[in-house]
Amino acid sequence: MSDNNKKVIGDSKVIITNQNGIHEKLGDIVEKHFNHIFQKPYQEHTKTAFDAVNEIVQQFLLNNPEGDVILDSCCGVGQSTRLLAQQNPQALVIGVDKSAHRIERNVEGFNDVAGYHAENYHLVRADLNDFYRLVKAENWPVAKHYILYPNPWPKSKHVKRRWHGSAVFPTLITIGDKLILRSNWRLYLEEFQFAADIAGLTGDISKVEKQALALTPFEAKYQASDQQCWQLVIQTACYSS
Fold first, then answer.
1. 56: helix, strand or coil
2. Domain positions in the chain
3. How many beta carbons lie within 10 A of that of residue 105, not counting itself?
4. Which of 20, 61, 166, 238 lies in the 20 to 30 Å Cα band around 110?
5. SS3 (DSSP) at 144
């Protein structure tokens, strides 16, 4: 996001957009994506990464029939992945981000949090546009799917870069029994909610209350600057594409 789309408040920045509400073309964009199957060839690095982590997931499910798989999309440095693993010791948490630099970074001091180091997680460098389709094809039984503070792409002309405006959206909303999306830009969640409604899915937006330990570094920055963070929860288990 460019500096022209932000203004500083405290240590973080508030999103500025040239939209007055939900994008006027979003409905048409979503309908088009539902009517045309996304068939872009998989990138080789994502296919290779998926094949490796799929073996881990299948072995986990074989050994833990009652265990949950949790997907943490756009996981960045993986702080949220580790925290979710701590909070869900019965689950296997898979964190995915497109940036090798972010994936390979260590979260300073994280291993000392609560005196517990989670081991029930894996971080994967992959393109989620491909990864989602591979997860769907392999039919992973994902219990919860987190998308925490994705790039908002606030300029109106970039609506198709937002997850709900992307070609992979029809697949994305089939991943997980529950989808949890967080942002400091409420309009992003309202648009996602609008797009999900086209697929017959409903969800509720609520405030994210401040916690002693934020799920992501972005969440910590926003809260430290007294920005309100928001959460959209959609029950997707009833959805079939």
1. helix
2. 3-235
3. 13
4. 61
5. strand
Which tokens sit at 222? 């926003």
CATH number 3.40.50.150 given to 3-235: yes
232 by Cβ neighbours in 10 Å (0-12 / 13-18 / 19+) ranks as: buried
Q: What is the mean pLDDT of the chain?
A: 89
Full DSSP string of 159-198: GGGSGGGSTTHHHHTTSSSEEEEEES-HHHHHHHHHHHHH
240: left (phi over 0), alpha (psi -120 to 50) or beta: beta
Q: What is the average per-residue pLDDT within 93-104?
A: 88
CA atoms of 86 and 18, how far apart (whole Å): 40
**Taking a C-beta distance cutoff of 8 angstroms, is the pair 81, 129 a contact?**
no
N residues, the chain: 241
Task: Calculate mean pLDDT across residues 199-212.
Answer: 91
By C-alpha distance, which of 138, 49, 53 is closest to 92?
A: 53
Per-residue pLDDT tens digits for 145-188: 999 999 999 999 999 999 999 999 999 999 999 999 999 999 99
